[in-house]
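USER:
Class, as today's exercise, take the chain set out below, and explain how the chain folds.
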Amino acid sequence: MNVTIVTAFPGFFGDFLSESMIGRAIRNGLIRVDVVDLRDFGTGNYRQVDDYAFGGGGGMVLLPDVLEKALDTVEAGKGPAYVVCPSPQGDLLSQEIVETLAARDHVVIICGHYEGLDERFIEKRVDREISMGDFVLTGGEIPAMAVIDAMARLVPGVIGKESAVVEDSFFRGMLDHPHYTRPSEWDGVPAPDVLLSGHAAEIENWRRSEAAARTLARRPELISKANIRQYLPKGVYAALVHSPVLDRKGEKTTAAVTGLDLSDIGRSCRTYGLDRFLVTTPLASQRDLVKTMAAHWTGGTGGDVNPDRKEAFGTIKIFPSLDRATEWVTRREKEPPLIIGTTARRREGGFHWLEAKRRILREKKPVLFVFGTGSGLHEEVLGRCHIVLQPLSGGFGDYNHLSVRTAVGVVLDRFFGWR
């Protein structure tokens, strides 16, 4: 991590860069933060760095030529930089932005003051303006400290325990769980018994549950970009149904198994952490075909050639019907799953995927996503689903003809993708 701060008030950063984790990281050579005094590039005897704004109204604006001289000098010494300016007009700072900045070789943060920077300099030299929120500060120094602190946490070795970074609020897209310390009872309020139990698995489950509940209650909008898989106490499954489905005329039919569906959907299930990929077809010959293809990749030469595909096909389990598949999940999980159907057609009562995601977190049940081959699931299947998702849509017009393989990838990413 290599950051340069350009500021007219370098004294702001003395304690910040010498104390606590940031100071220790600098002393250990894990991060480098240089502070450049903008007044070193000021004009005249008074080293002027600002002037009155054109058009009146009061307030001072940092001079573009002074800013450019400072930036040119920094880049001459440390190489090209990604230039950031804290500003109320910028993008709201988020973990995603922090990670983007942390991936840069050299970041320059230019701290505005008064009425900010001359717009011409911003347009010419600033790569990104960043806002801390809908409020106003006296300058860019405090936002610069916040950006540096957030970036530093991502540098290996800065935080003593690497898992602490991964468990932080927002890193996984969810809020953090509650924390407790000694004494075990304070002011008449005890710490949760599970935290004193010493049972690592139960403690982890409690923390995940509390993080999900807290996010749902306080910041439900965050759920849209969170991978909720690890916050679910029960298993998650996907079923590919070949009967009853619709043909192109909308009639009830049985579709044929295809190797491409098995391969691609199996890989999606493995990628997004599903427990099993359930394939259902009433035709014994088709079930035998699935077994033959799976055996080739899991126990035959195919698995030796492509171990990743071996893992994907290893998630497949075959059933003659969705009823039998659901019964198997129920026995395995010791309770019936929440069944989520999918369709490419508009249907009354369809759930937005985000509402479905929130419901999954609240109900804490096993989850079974159901996808249809052919031209989609028949009403016999959709009618028994607890939730039917609204169709995937995008682009222009009413064209909606995604393959089931693509649909599975999109749906699973919305629920179990990383931000």
The longest helix spans residues 200-218. The chain has a mean pLDDT of 95. The first strand starts at residue 2 and ends at 7.
